[in-house]
Each structure stands twice: as structure tokens, then as C-alpha cells.
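USER: Write out one fold?

ASSISTANT:
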Amino acid sequence: MMNLKFDRNELSGAFGDIGTDLPLLVGLTLASGLGASNVFFMFGLMQILSGAFYGLPMPVQPLKAVAIIAISQKLSGDIILGAGIAIGIIMLFLTLTGLINWISKVIPNNVIRGIQFGLGVNLVLLAVNKYVPADGLNGYILSIISCLIVIVLFGNRKLPPALPVILLGFVYAFFFQVEPLSIIQSFGFELPNAHIPNFQNVVIGFMILALPQIPLSLTNSILATQKVSEDLFPEKKLKVKNISYTYSFMNILNPFFGGVPVCHGSGGMMGHFTFGARTGGSVFIYGVFYLIIGLFFSQRFDDFVRIFPLPILGVILVFEGLALAKLIKKTSTRNDLFIALLVGFIAIGLNYGYLIGLILGTILHYALIVRINKT
């Protein structure tokens, strides 16, 4: 399936999902005590394998529910790794039994569009509330300039927008945030090491992290990602089962080398595409970036990643979220649009909103079908 190009557009697209991934990876690593070399190396390796296997901008992301719960509760790295195995086994079971195909047929498209809309808006809110204000007035100015660059260059294949935005972030970082000497001092070679999770941590990880994560994974990581690939690359005919297989294997493999639980994601694919990517080359490049951090800058990785200022990551996240939310326009009827908006706003406003929206939206969809058939 390899379809890899390495040009300026793939390089630009490679940064289309960094606003989601980098802060979560840093937060997970610092909160859990996991080895930075393991986390970043395995995350990069999964990107490379995904880009090469699919030949599409099919990036890998940290599992969001897992990351948020683990960071807020400061869970140990062993529990996080155990959760990865539990999640991988659950998804593999759903795949091998064919239940994932049944789920994909039962859940209607309007509900998936609603999940995409809710996730897109949540990404925008995260960027606007957390990332953009991070550096005060300087951050707002940097964000405004970056937004203007993206708007002016949007869709430009000769100068894709992420490249000047990332370059602007580097210049800003070295003027206001980073001492060049600290980057030099953070350099040092380190290989990841093997890790053997124990059964107890798999069980604890299942109870605390896997159960909240699975509904979001089914909707956004599997079903919504397949729908986005169908929207952007209809000729590829990517199936739900393909995505659930790679999702499963990544999470079963990662913990044995200290890697955090990961997924694919509709927002990630849309982010890479929005900033120029059209092949797996962008994901491959993105993976090499994390391999470099893991192998050469893991000893003081928190200094190194400051060359990507949060306001810059926020701007990238805003456009990724908007592109994802705009897919709601693909709903075909007013009833579908109503259900999609309802699901989206539930996902935005409630705890476990993705699960609640999924259930209520699906019930409402079939109730409307029954009502229409009776009249």
C-alpha cells in the first residue's frame, strides 16, 4: 500500500496534527514517569509504519481520554501501559469476531458526522482557551499573525501554510522562550528499552482507562476516520476492519517497549490533509521527527519541545478543528443535520458526551425512520 511522496506539501502536512499530539505526549511523559526515549521513539515508529502501510495521511495519535485521565490523576506509567494492552485486546476481539463491522453498519452516518463536529469544536475550544493565551499578549499577537498566514496561503501548493507558520514559531521561541545553549545541552543519544507489563496493571488499566476510552475510539478513531478517508480518498476504499486491525496491533505492541496507547483519528487525517498532505509521506516525516526526539533529545525533551510555542500549536489546532467540524455540511437532509448537531453539542457539553451522543443519536435516527415509515 506504500504511496509516499516527500515534497514541500507533505512536509507542511506533517505538522497538521502536532497541536494535538505534542502537548499530550509531553503531559503523559511528565505525569507518569515513563521514559521519554520510549514514548517518543515508539510514537514515531508507529507513525512511520502507519504512513507506509496505508500510503495515506493516516497519522497516529495519543488516546485522548486515556491521556486526560492519566494526566489529571497522575497515574503511574505501568497502569497506562497496561491500559494499552487492554484496549488493544478489546479492539482485536471486536475485529476478529466481526462485531466492528456490525457496529459500523448500525451507527448511522449522521451520528458519525455529529461526533466529528463535536470533536472539531472541542479542538477549537482547547486551542482558544488553553494554547493561544499561553504567552499572554505576545501569544495573541503571534496567533493573529499565524492565522493570517494560514488564511492567505490556504490551499497554496507552492508555499503550503504550515511551513512559514512553524518557521515563525521557531524564530519566536528563540527570541522569547528558548536558550540555544539549552537545546545543545539536551542533545544525547539514548535507546528505548523493553518493558514487560504485568496482568494486574492490565486489569487496573482496563477499569480506569480502557472503559472511558473505547466509545471514543469506536466513533472517532475507527468509524469517523473511515468516513474521512472515504470523503478525501474515495478511490482507496478503506474499510473499518483495516483501521481496527492496525489500532489493535499498535496498542498490543507499544506497551512492551514503553510506548503510550495510541489510535488513528479523523482529526489527525484532516489536519494533515488541510495543511497539504496527500500521501503517507507526511506521516512518515512526522514519525521521523519523533524518532529524533526519542533517540537524541529525550534526556531534556521538555526543553527541546519549547521550540514549538503553544500559540503556534493552537493555530494549527484551530484549523484542524474547523476542517473537521465543516464535514457536517455533508449531511443530506434536515433530519440528519438535526441529529448530527444534537450529537455534536452533547459531545461538546457533557462528560462522556461522545458515548451519550452516540447512543441517543442512534436511537433517535431509528425512531425517526420508524415514524416516517408509519406515516
Strands lie at 61-62, 262-263. The two ends are 48 Å apart (CA to CA). The chain is about 70% helix and 0% strand.
